[in-house]
Specification:
The protein is about 40% helix and about 15% strand. With about 475 residues, the chain is an alpha/beta fold. The chain has a single domain (about 1-464), classed as Alpha/Beta hydrolase fold, catalytic domain (Rossmann fold, 3-Layer(aba) Sandwich), CATH 3.40.50.1820. Strands 1-2-3-4-6-5-7-8-9-10 form a 10-stranded mixed sheet, sandwiched between helices. Helix 7 packs across helix 8 (about 200-215), helix 11 (about 275-285) packs across helix 13 (about 305-320) and helix 12 crosses helix 13. The protein is globular. The relative contact order is 0.16. The model is unreliable at about 1-25 and about 25-30 (pLDDT under 50).
Length: about 475
């Protein structure tokens, strides 16, 4: 598991203690209980449904029909799954935005209602399977098998190039700007004047891009484990720089017989695959922020026995395997290549020229920028290696962030979206509030501290 995928698609599924949900089960159509539900029945063909594997929640399921290319409204159409809790709640509508990019989100409605009943009781919950996820997920079998939901462990460039051909019709239309257009179409279909956007991981970027485009429609933002609105930093430098302190904090809590950072540097110097180690340690930080067994495995590998470290890497890779309906690796690559500020900019299409730009960016790094890893590992992470051969390479425009109430939540131990980045982002919002949850990983609004901060923040946010 890495920064945006696996168990941290939206709220961390591990925190819910539940298995992956089955598709919604239709029951009888029921009369609408409120204006939003009435609009869902009329415009989305919504019907009463349930996901019993997660929680018993009164819920509607429907489909939003949108053009594949928002610039061509009369062109090919796609249907995006929608879930909506009922009946109406006193504080209005909250949209739950999943992560990835590439992760299904419709199961977030019953999950959040079950995990955070105080929120589900105050807000009517809404989720949309973003284009390229769930039932519309494009499939690239080789990429899906090789990289799963990881965005550190790369697929081969041959598999990526094959994928680009397999999803040629889809790939230019999987940017966050396309998702923003879909969300606005959903808001208008439901007749909602304003709503609160609650995003986790990559969902935070979607939330911010929507708020930048439609600030008048946003009553508030909840940004849990946030990325910059201009896209993720492609070389993972912040994650590498945050790693030593995270391991040291874990040792202060659990105890370590030796210095795990020095052990990690020694193991890398001895020739262990540092990209696989980086992937495994970042993944562990997400749902096991005290890194159980990791310091011991590093010490044993430094002493000549890498078996525990090998098991950690293998377990991480197995855990990143995801069924297509839950996570599309093809959508992940396409969106990242369209939304990430890559070293070669937006206009360079020749892979050879892209490689020159990437090599120059890595050559400009100092050893301390990536220590205890070597600077060369920055050129091997999945995003830059995939986007090097991906046909489209765009760049999100910059802009002022809106003057709306914003709660940023960050896990102190999260190496996927480090808390230091959230602190910088909070300063960019006129009304940004940051809460860092001590010794927590990725996706923290269901932790006790996160729940308290969320409840306090939402107490002052009312939608129309």
């Amino acid at each position: 598991m890495t920064r945006f995928g696996l168990l941290a698609i939206g709220l961390v599924a591990a925190l819910a203690g539940c298995a992956a949900p089955a598709p919604a089960v239709p029951t009888e159509a029921v009369p609408a209980q409120d204006a939003v539900a009435a609009a869902a029945v009329e415009h989305l063909g919504a019907y009463e449904c349930e996901m019993p594997e997660i929680a018993e929640v009164d819920m509607l399921c429907g489909h939003l029909t949108v053009p594949l290319d928002p610039a061509d409204p009369a062109g090919a159409q796609i249907e995006l799954a929608v879930t909506l809790s009922t009946p109406a709640a006193p504080r209005g509508l909250m949209v739950l935005l999943g992560g990835g990019p590439g992760g299904s989100a419709i199961w977030l409605v019953p999950q959040v209602a079950g995990l955070l009943p105080e929120i589900g009781g105050e807000y009517q919950l809404l989720a949309l399977d973003q284009r390229g996820t769930g039932a519309t997920a494009p499939d690239c079998p080789e990429v899906q098998a090789q990289t799963g939901s990881s965005d550190i462990r790369p697929a081969s460039q041959d598999a990526v190039a094959e994928c680009a051909e397999l999803i040629a019709d889809w790939r230019p239309h999987l940017a966050s700007s396309d998702v923003v257009a879909d969300l606005e179409a959903l808001r208008q279909a439901l007749g909602a004047p304003t709503w609160v956007l609650n995003g986790t991981s990559y969902g935070t970027l979607t939330a911010m891009r929507y708020a930048m485009a439609h600030p008048e429609a946003v009553a508030g933002l909840v940004l849990d484990s946030a990325l910059p609105p201009e896209g993720a930093e492609p070389l993972f430098l912040a994650s590498m720089q945050a790693l030593p302190a995270a391991l040291e904090r874990a040792c202060a809590v659990t105890g370590c017989a030796s210095d795990p950072v020095e052990d990690l540097a020694a193991v890398i110097a001895a020739g262990y695959d540092e990209l696989a180690l980086f992937d495994a340690i970042v993944s562990t930080s997400i749902i096991q922020p005290t890194f159980p067994g990791v310091p011991e495995a590093l010490a044993a590998a430094r002493a000549g026995d890498p078996s525990a470290l090998d098991e950690l890497v293998a377990t991480t890779q197995q855990a990143s395997e995801s069924p297509l309906w839950m996570f599309s690796a093809a959508t992940h690559i396409a969106t990242m290549c369209l939304d990430t500020p890559l070293p070669w900019g937006a206009d360079v299409t020749d892979p050879a020229e892209r490689r020159v730009a990437l090599d120059a960016a890595v050559a400009a790094l100092a050893p301390e920028d990536t220590w205890p890893f070597t600077t060369s590992v920055a050129a091997r992470v999945a995003t830059v290696t995939a986007c090097e051969v991906w046909p489209e390479s765009l760049q999100l425009p910059t802009g002022l962030l809106p003057d709306v109430p914003v709660l940023l939540l960050a896990g102190e131990q999260d190496l996927s979206t480090p808390a230091a980045d959230a602190a910088v982002l909070a300063e960019r919002f006129p009304r940004g509030e940051l809460v860092v949850v001590e010794m927590a990983g990725h996706g923290v609004q269901a932790t006790p501290t996160g729940r308290e901060a969320l409840a306090d923040f939402l107490a002052g946010v009312l939608t129309e």
